[in-house]
Amino acid sequence: MKPYAVPAALTACVAVSLVMLVLEPVPGGRHYEYALLQALALTAVWGLSAVGPRTFFGKRTLAAVLLCGLALGAVNLAVLRPDPEIVRAYGTVFEALEAGRNPYTSGTIYHEIESVGPVFGDFNYPPLEIYPYYLAYRIAGAWNTTVLTVTLVVIQALCFIILLRMFHGIRPVLFLPFLPLILLGEVKTNVAMTFLVASLIFWLIKKDLETPRPLRGRLIAVLFGLGLMTKFLVLPLMAAYYARTLAAKGRRALGLVGVDVSIALGTAFLVMAPFGVLDVLKSTVLFNVVLDERAVLTTFYPNILSGPLAWLGLQALYPFAAFGVLALAVLVASRLEVFSAMLASSFVFLIVATTPEPQFLPVLVFLVAVAQGMALERDMAAKEGLARPAEAVRGGHPPAPARKAVIAAGLATLCLAVSSAPARAETGPSSIGGPDPGVPFRLVNHPSRAGPSFAGFSLSPPRVPADPPGLLREALRSETVSKPRPKKIRAWIELGAFATIVTLNYWASNSFPEDRDFGLDLDSQMSRVIGLEGWRFDSNQFSLNWSHIMGGAVYYQFGRSNRLSWFYSWMMSLAGSTWWEVIGEPKEVISINDQIMTGLGGFSVGEPWYQIGHFLCHQSSLVLRGLSFLNPVVKLNDWLDRKDPAAKEYAPPGWYEFSLFAGARRLAADGAADTDAYLGLRAGLLSLPEYARPGEVRRAVKDTYYSEISLDYALRGGHAEETRFFSKAVTWGRFAQRIDGRGNGYSLTVGLGSAFELFKKRPLAVYDAQPVPVKTDPGSLHLDEPRNFTDKLAILHVAGPVLDWTVFRRGLKLRTVVEAYGDFALVNSNAVNEFSLSHDVAGLKTIVFYYGYYYGFGGTLRAAARLDYRGLRIHGLVDLGAWGSADRLDRFQEEVTNNAHLSDTRVRSLLGAGWKVPGSPLELFFEIEGVRRRGWLAEVRVDRFESKVYAGLAWHF
Q1: Do β-strands 872-885 and 922-937 pair in parallel, antiparallel, or remain unpaired?
Q2: Are residues 502 and 559 in the same domain?
Q3: Please, which pLDDT band fits residue 450 given cuts at 50, 70 and 90?
Q4: Which of 179-193, 299-313, 398-412, 880-894: highest mean pLDDT?
Q5: What is the DSSP string of 349-403?
Q6: What local confidence, expressed as pLDDT, does residue 79 receive?
Q7: pTM of the predicted model over 0.70
Q8: Is there a single domain that holds both residue 644 and residue 682?
Q9: Host domain of residue 557
Q10: Which stretches of 530-565 are DSSP H helices?
């Protein structure tokens, strides 16, 4: 690519848009200035990409970014309206979903055309643009501009966290100027999910450039597939990435790229499937490329390609012209470095898009920043090694006057472009990235692969002492003990043997004959697996479905106990689950819920099970070592490795707590009260050796650093009135700690958590205690009586951020944990019993009709605090959860005549205290808990509250 090609092309774009602004030639076209502002903003982004990394991270550039971000954020917040089009559009989407209608075919979705007014049609964003906002709506219990804005800010905050995680060797303070631009750069409409997925893609590509691993390629493909289900900026990014791969590796990479593209498209296909693939494609892709169709539902803002073609009356040629220009750009850019290729393709995409899309400009700034950050890291590695003086990135030589003017004017134009864009356009920049040491990142360069990066997470300039203080030095040595070699072959042999045994047992026992839906012939299996006819939510009882997570935990142990990483072990649990669903039980549906529970849930239960079992195996106490048999797989492989000296090495955790407890519980609900016996166990493990020790630590944590398991029962008359099981693991985070010699200071971790919670009340009805297999004996359901299902929940908190902050002061320790998760849950409908008093339940979803629960998607927000002072402990917890039913892909979908949407919420609060008896392991405790459950089914709404009081004695060991 010639050095002048990019500025020449951008100049032509500015000229075309300026001509259209002056002549306004397109009938029905409005706001021609948007195309001009976008062209000028692209010129500014190119200017940022053309300077060296020292200039990019210099004080002048960062000050300009900060000022632009603050100004843009202020403007965006000032122009927010209480009833914009996007809020009304999503409101009608939620109404359609709750009425059991498909928003891509309902014809009830709100749109608005300037000078015409409201029109109604189908939803025209891809499916992943529904879920986060619907979840926010369910959690907030309302939908308005405030809820939308808060949701956008939260998602864009995650992008900033990703930005900080990407670079270990650059001071975080250099990225703080981008924070206002990321959080508030776009709060008028919904680009946040595209921004989040693109950020994750850039991060994984950077990691793969530094240390290539085949698994990362698969993960990138999955993210591209998810990104295609947000807004379409991900399309040119994906095309450029794979075209660049083929150009770099030649024909030998064709098969690999084909597999990755298939994974991406398959992922997108699965996301679209619940709404109908053809319906989604028609309402999104075709809607955006056929100009005449698009003008029916939305205002047409002429862009640099679509405007002239509409002016000439050649609208029908637009899809072909746009595709051709973009494809040519991708092919030409494939000769560039990967991030340069992605940036060039994105430039062309914004130029050939139907309308100007300034909301995507922050993603491009993020991409430029990724490349510039990489260049800066290499420069540091080449010149200073591990240590880097602060002045290394403070200035640098100023750019040439022309480039300096382009950057200054362009950043101002970028703010203007985004803030004056239509309500459907958005933004939210960020920063990081770059190629060779000292070599400016350019669209015309082809730099070498990235070099190594260096750790250093800090909210202030890092201090890297040559010789850490004694306790910290000891802790660091203990964490870097020699580790036994991972044993992948043995892990897969154990997994294969276990899978074979359970498969043979399944066939020998002729289990679940009522679930035989498919034959063993090739046509049936092709339809089942490839044709997706077998991909359904199954119709099994609650106890069977939640317990699949334990199978995933067992699969997980085979990898983890053979010293494989938590991520690799997680993939083994997914592999074991897929084997079982596809091969192990070929006559049954491929259960979507079982795949989620077994595969994704393997980590949330399997990791704490492994960590605690591994800890117990290395204790000196006979009692604790005896308890290690609670994880037989860990115990087996520990014995097999008994002759390996490295297997005996173990870094002790910074904190742990194990306790058994017993006492009494008083439950009050619906005007009645009962007293039960109460007993259980709790185990918690914080595996950071430096935790609570004097010294300063700032580092990344790649392995699991927090594990928790708890189990408790409330017993009455020999029956378990309530059962609760909870498991949680937190990994892949940042650890920052500063504690002085007197023990005063703080400890902070931010990581990725996953958890599982089971809650179950004792069933009262026979059909709830002993579920009736579907389609067998409906008489056992006693349909002449109202339903009497008791409450039950199995919640897989799939993943989410976890912040853990501890303050140490004069013997006092205050620990606060805040966490948020996306959930898949088996939820007992709180409203189904009330619904059955006045409605026929026979047409409801299969598992609601038979078992009273449904498969739900939603989220949970939890905050907890604990204060320890000498022998006194005070703790509290607030837990907010909301879930809505999956309304498609029922095993017997065609027989569901009343596909009403179900939704439930739970608010749980707890306050407690404990006092440890001096000189003993005993603790007296007292707790008060309140639980409010709300449920909706059609027009029926039920609200229940119960309070619980606990008192008893705990033994800590």
Answers
A1: unpaired
A2: yes
A3: very low
A4: 880-894
A5: HHHHSSS--GGGHHHHHHHHHHHHHHHHHHHHHHHTTT---GGGGT--PPPPHHH
A6: 73
A7: no
A8: no
A9: 469-650
A10: 542-546, 548-560
